[in-house]
Amino acid sequence: MEKTIFMKIIDREIPAEILYEDEETLAFLDISPTSPGHTLVIPKKYSVNVFDTDSETWLAVMRTVQKIAPAVRDAVGAKGVHINSNHGEEAGQVVPHLHIHIIPRTDRSKFEFWPPQKYKDSEARETAEKIRANL
Ligand code: 5GP
User: Fold this and answer.
1) What are phi and psi of 110, to 5 degrees?
2) Residue 116 — pLDDT band, cuts 50, 70, 90?
């Protein structure tokens, strides 16, 4: 299969500001940051997203996210971070290699979030029933 852009970063075929590396994961600066310090954490073992990632790899990525997040926050003088991830094209995933975004936030200005909606009538119960049936 053709290497993803992130595999090329793992293999040092294209440059990136690498922040941290261990046997299972790599963390580096996003090339188009939402704010300075915007970091991506990826597994070295290839998977596309949450739907095809094994639990060990997922946990390794999350361990690195937790290790990196305070360093990112403090380095840019932020007060908090978004830990955010897109899984599937419809959810905004552009690079088909599992990655978690760590995005520092210094204040709540320009804070955009998913717009809240309301369930109608029995929709919440029916939706919950469908999810539980899939577990
Ligand atoms: P997605 O939309 O798939 O969740 O996010 C992909 C992210 O990868 C984007 O934020 C984008 O800026 C970042 N990205 C894409 N290509 C490169 C690259 O070549 N180097 C780095 N460092 N980041 C990249």
Assistant:
1) 55, 25
2) confident
Q: Is 99 a catalytic residue?
A: yes
CATH of the domain at 85: 3.30.428.10
- Of the two residues 30 and 109, the one the predictor is more confident about is 30
From the number of C-beta atoms within 10 Å of its C-beta (0-12, 13-18, 19+), residue 71 rates as middle
Distance 51 CA to ligand 1 centre (A): 20
Query: Which residues form the domain of 79?
Result: 5-133
Cα-based torsion angle of the residue sequence 120, 126, 132, 135 in order, rounded to the nearest 10 degrees: -90
How many independent structural domains does the chain possess? 1
Task: Indicate the SS3 state at residue 122.
Answer: coil
Tell me, what's the pLDDT at 134? 97
What H or E segment, with its residue span, contains residue 132? helix 123-134
- Specify the ligand 1 atom closest to the Cα of 99: 4
- pTM assigned to the model: 0.94
pLDDT at position 70 is 98
